[in-house]
From TrEMBL:
Domain of life: Bacteria
GO molecular function, one term: hydrolase activity
Protein name: Phosphohydrolase
Domain spans labelled HD: 21-124
Keywords: Hydrolase
Residue ranges of the TM segments: none
InterPro entries assigned to the protein according to its UniProt record, in alphabetical order: HD/PDEase_dom, HD_domain
Length: 197
């Protein structure tokens, strides 16, 4: 089985919600590449880290009371060793996975930095809004449409400040504006959020 087939097999058996699954990971990978196009990142590291960064969230791999970044790092470590992934690259992949969340400091490698920025940006803008609303009733923090709207407001205000790279910051401003336009429209059309669904 090839590396890419191994990765697809992970998603097939993972039980991942679409907000964090294959399409999210693919967007993160492609956006990481786009943001870093002026650099020569290691394609293999960036791809594997992007595809495995959220595995610790998936029902097949998650562990109670364990941060998904640490669980994802453990799952990736086991998988990469079984795949005979180059041993010199494994620590870089694992650091990128461990530091991909907005509440983490960026990792040391360019691959880690751009993966983190792309993951943050995937939570902003129109795609970020779609993800939030798709999670209603599937996430402990997003039980209702009101929770999704509150989370969208929080993300629009806080996440752009977490983006590290210049290219990422430019895109964060645009995606923040998309979210704020949406929130403003919903506010107008729902009597100040009083008449939400």
């Amino acid at each position: 089985m090839s590396q890419r087939e191994d990765i697809l097999h992970i998603f097939e058996k993972s039980g991942a919600h679409s907000a964090w699954g294959l399409k999210h990971c693919t967007r993160v990978y492609l956006l990481s590449k786009d943001l870093s196009q002026h650099l020569s990142l290691d394609e293999e590291i960036l791809y594997i880290a992007s595809m495995l960064h959220d595995t610790g969230r998936y029902p097949a791999y998650a562990r109670p009371n364990m941060d998904h970044t640490l669980r994802s790092k453990g799952v990736a470590s086991n998988l990469l060793q079984r795949m005979a992934f180059p041993s010199t690259k494994i620590p870089i992949v694992l650091e990128a996975i461990e530091t991909h969340m907005y509440y983490s400091e960026p990792g040391r490698s360019d691959e880690a930095i751009y993966l983190r920025d792309a993951d943050i940006l995937d939570n902003l803008g129109n795609i970020g809004l779609m993800k939030l609303f798709s999670l209603i009733g599937h996430d402990d923090l997003i039980r209702t449409p009101e929770d999704a709207l509150e989370r969208a407001r929080t993300f629009a205000e806080a996440l752009p400040n977490k983006v590290y790279t210049k290219a990422g910051r430019r895109l964060a401003v645009k995606r923040r504006e998309e979210m704020l336009r949406f929130l403003s429209g919903i506010k107008r059309q729902s009597s100040d959020f009083a008449a939400i669904l």
